[in-house]
Write a structure and sequence with these properties.
Chain lengths: ~220, ~290, ~120
C-alpha cells in the first residue's frame, strides 16, 4: 500500500483547504452577524431619538440581545445546511473542511453574542440587569448553537421537510418547557439552578454532541441538484 | 512519476434497492475532450458526481494521478464539477446572486482565473447582481459554463452545459471550449443530449446506458466502424452474419440494421445492400434507443 | 477552405480532402504554409486531435511537410501527386458507381458512352 505519511507540501495543501474554507464561512457568517447587530443598534438609536425613554431602551436591549443570540444560530444552522453546504461541497470542498468551517464560525458567532451581552452589562446601569444575566445569556447562546447544529444535522441527513418538523417540535418543547419550568418552580429556584455549574457543563455537552451530529450529517450528505 | 489520469474502478452506486451504476470502469486521460452521452437516468450525473468526490460511491475506487479522490484536498484541487444550478432550493427560491456563486468558486478553486471569468461574464452579458431564482435557464447554463472554464482545473466536468442555450450561444460555447482547450490542454468531460452538434468537439465519446458504460472510444474510430446496412432482408442477414448488430428495423421485405465492425471485420461487397456511414447520434440511438416491444 | 463539413464522411478525411482541393485549385500554393491544427479546429469547431489526424494523412502521403517551430507546408510536387492519386481513384470512386446505377436501370455501356459524347461541350 502507499506510504501513509504525507510530505510537508501535502500537509500545506491540506491546510490551505481548511483556511480557504474557514475564510469563506467566516465571511458569510460575519456579514450576517454584523448586519443583524447593525440593525439592532439602528433600531435602538431610532427609538432613543423618538422617545428618549432610556429605561425602555435598556429593557428592550436586555431582552432582545439574548433573543437574537438564539435566533441567529438556529436559523443559520438551518439556512446554511440548505444553501451554503451544498454550494461549498459542489465547489470541491471536502466534507471535513465544510464541517470545520461551519462549526468554527458558528461557535465564533456564539462567543461574539456573548461578548455583546457582556458589553451591555458594562454600559447599561446595573439596576436594569437581572442577576446572573451573563450566565443566562451564555447558556442560552450555547443552547442556540447546539440547536442550530442539531437542526442543520437533521436537514443534511433527512432533508428540509423533516428539518422543519423537528424545528417546530423543538421550539414547542423549548418554549413550552421554559414557560412551564418558570411557572412551576418560580424565579428563585430557576436562578438557583442557573447558578449551578453542572447546567453549564450540560449545555456544553449538548453543544458538542450536536456539533458531532452535524459532522455526521455532512458525511452522509449527497450533493444533488 | 505519477500517472496523470483520473481512474474509476468498479464504481457501484445504489440508492436503496435501485442500482444506478453497475461496476463502472473508466479512465480519463490528461488533455482530451470527452463526450458523455446517455439517456435521462442512465447515470451520467451520478458518475460525474462520484468521480469528482462530491458523492460517495457505494463500491469501487476513484483515483486522480494515483491518489484517491474522496475527501482528499490535494486531488480535489485538480477537479471541477460544474453541475446544473437549481433556481429553487429546499428552502425556497435561491436567494444567492450570480456574484455569490462566482465568489464561492473563486475561493474554492485554487487556479481560478478571475480575468477569464470577467471576460466571459461580459461576453455572455450576465448581470452579476441578479438573483439565481430570477435567471432564465439559458443564463443558468451560462453561469455553469463560466465557472467550469474559469476554474482552470485539470479535470473539468460539465453536466449538460448547453441546456437552455439557443443555437448561436451553443456554437459560441463549443468555440470557447475549444479555444480554452487549445490554450490549456485541460481534460474536459461534457455530458449532453444535443449529440450531433457536439460530436465534432469530442475526441472520445463515452456512452452510458442504464448504469453501464457500454462504449468508450475515439469518436472518429467509432464512426468509421459503424455501418448502417439496409436492403432486402435476406441479403442484409447474409452480409451481417457473424457481425455485431443493433437496432433492427423491418419494413415489408426490407430491413435495416446497425453494425459495429470489430477489428479486421468487413462487410462483403456486391451483395445488393446499401451501406451508409452513420452520425454519432444515429449510433447512440441504435445502441441505447427505446426498444420497440 | 471555408466549406461546411458534412455528416457523410469522417471529419479528418474531409479536412485532408479540403486541403488537397485547395492545393489543386491553387488556393494554397506549393511551399506555402497551411493552417495549423489549432486554426483548423477553431475554423470548423472540431477537436484539434481530429484536425491533426487529417493533416497527418497528408504528411504521410508526402503532400505536406513539417518545418519545426513554424508549421506545416505544402511539399513541392504535391499538386502533381494529388492529381495522380485522384486519377487512380477516379474509376473506383466515380465510374464504378455510375456503371452500377446504369446497369440497375438497364442502360448499356454503349448508351452511356453515347450520352457522354453527345453532351460534351
Amino acid at each position: 500500500m502507499f506510504c501513509a505519511c504525507k510530505s510537508g507540501a501535502e500537509v500545506e495543501e491540506g491546510m490551505k483547504g481548511y483556511f480557504r474554507s474557514m475564510f469563506y464561512w467566516a465571511y458569510c457568517m460575519e456579514i450576517l452577524f454584523f448586519s443583524m447587530l447593525g440593525a439592532i443598534v439602528l433600531v435602538i438609536f431610532i427609538y432613543i431619538f423618538i422617545t428618549g425613554d432610556m429605561d425602555q431602551v435598556f429593557q428592550y436591549t436586555i431582552t432582545y440581545i439574548p433573543m437574537f443570540g438564539v435566533i441567529y444560530p438556529v436559523s443559520s444552522g438551518m439556512n446554511m445546511a440548505n444553501m451554503q453546504v451544498p454550494l461549498a461541497l459542489s465547489n470541491g470542498s471536502t466534507r471535513k473542511e465544510t464541517a470545520c468551517g461551519f462549526l468554527v464560525t458558528m461557535h465564533a458567532a456564539m462567543l461574539q453574542f456573548w461578548i455583546v451581552s457582556a458589553v451591555c452589562c458594562v454600559i447599561i446601569p446595573a439596576e436594569h440587569i437581572p442577576d446572573d444575566y451573563l450566565e443566562m445569556c451564555g447558556l442560552l447562546f450555547l443552547a442556540g448553537c447546539g440547536i442550530g447544529n442539531g437542526l442543520g444535522a437533521v436537514i443534511l441527513r433527512f432533508g428540509n421537510k423533516v428539518g422543519w418538523i423537528v424545528y417546530m417540535f423543538a421550539m414547542f418543547i423549548l418554549i413550552g418547557g421554559a414557560v412551564a419550568v418558570s411557572l412551576l418552580l418560580g424565579k428563585d429556584t430557576v436562578t438557583a439552578i442557573l447558578n449551578n455549574s453542572p447546567i453549564f457543563v450540560a449545555g456544553m455537552v449538548f453543544d458538542v454532541l450536536m456539533s458531532v451530529a452535524y459532522y455526521m450529517g455532512i458525511k452522509k450528505y449527497e450533493v444533488r441538484i | 512519476m505519477k500517472e496523470e489520469r483520473l481512474i474509476g474502478k468498479g464504481i457501484i452506486k445504489t440508492y436503496g434497492k435501485k442500482n444506478v451504476l453497475n461496476n463502472v470502469d473508466i479512465e480519463l486521460e490528461k488533455g482530451k475532450i470527452y463526450g458523455l452521452i446517455g439517456r435521462n437516468g442512465a447515470g451520467k450525473t451520478t458518475l460525474l458526481s462520484i468521480l469528482a468526490a462530491q458523492n460517495p460511491a457505494t463500491g469501487g475506487t476513484v483515483t486522480c494521478n494515483g491518489m484517491p479522490v474522496w475527501e482528499n484536498r490535494e486531488a480535489l484541487d485538480h477537479i471541477c464539477f460544474s453541475r446544473e444550478i437549481n433556481p429553487v432550493t429546499g428552502y425556497g427560491a435561491n436567494g444567492y446572486k450570480v456574484k455569490d456563486y462566482l465568489r464561492a468558486a473563486s475561493v474554492y478553486m485554487p487556479n481560478w482565473d478571475k480575468e477569464l471569468a470577467g471576460r466571459l461574464v461580459k461576453e455572455f452579458e450576465l448581470d452579476v447582481k441578479k438573483r439565481i431564482s430570477k435567471l432564465s435557464k439559458g443564463m443558468l447554463s451560462m453561469l455553469t459554463i463560466i465557472i467550469a472554464l474559469a476554474s482552470k482545473a485539470d479535470y473539468t466536468f460539465l453536466d449538460e452545459p448547453v441546456a437552455g442555450l439557443d443555437v448561436v450561444m451553443r456554437e459560441y460555447f463549443y468555440r470557447t471550449l475549444l479555444e480554452e482547450f487549445a490554450e490549456s490542454g485541460r481534460t474536459f468531460v461534457v455530458s449532453t443530449h444535443i449529440i450531433e452538434e457536439a460530436a465534432e468537439v469530442f475526441e472520445e465519446v463515452i456512452i452510458i446506458d442504464k448504469g453501464n458504460v457500454i462504449l468508450k472510444e475515439n469518436t472518429e474510430e467509432l464512426l468509421e466502424r459503424a455501418v448502417h446496412v439496409s436492403g432486402m432482408a435476406e441479403n442484409v442477414d447474409k452480409v451481417t452474419a457473424g457481425l455485431k448488430t443493433f437496432h433492427e428495423e423491418k419494413t415489408g421485405r426490407s430491413k435495416g440494421v446497425t453494425v459495429l465492425l470489430g477489428k479486421g471485420e468487413k462487410i462483403p461487397e456486391n451483395i445488393g445492400v446499401s451501406l451508409q456511414q452513420m452520425s454519432l447520434q444515429q449510433v447512440f440511438v441504435a445502441l441505447s434507443g427505446k426498444r420497440e416491444e | 477552405m471555408n466549406e461546411f463539413l458534412t455528416q457523410e464522411k469522417s471529419i479528418y478525411l474531409q479536412i485532408s480532402e479540403m486541403i488537397e482541393n485547395d492545393i489543386l485549385r491553387d488556393i494554397i500554393l506549393e511551399e506555402e504554409k497551411v493552417p495549423s491544427t489549432n486554426e483548423l479546429a477553431r475554423l470548423y469547431t472540431i477537436n484539434p486531435a481530429t484536425a491533426a489526424k487529417g493533416i497527418n494523412i497528408l504528411v504521410d502521403n508526402g503532400i505536406l511537410y513539417k518545418k519545426r517551430g513554424i508549421g506545416m507546408f505544402v511539399a513541392s510536387g504535391a499538386k502533381e501527386k494529388i492529381r495522380k492519386c485522384r486519377r487512380e481513384e477516379f474509376y473506383d470512386k466515380y465510374i464504378k458507381k455510375l456503371l452500377a446505377e446504369a446497369e440497375s436501370i438497364g442502360i448499356s455501356r454503349e448508351e452511356v458512352i453515347c450520352m457522354i459524347r453527345e453532351n460534351s461541350k
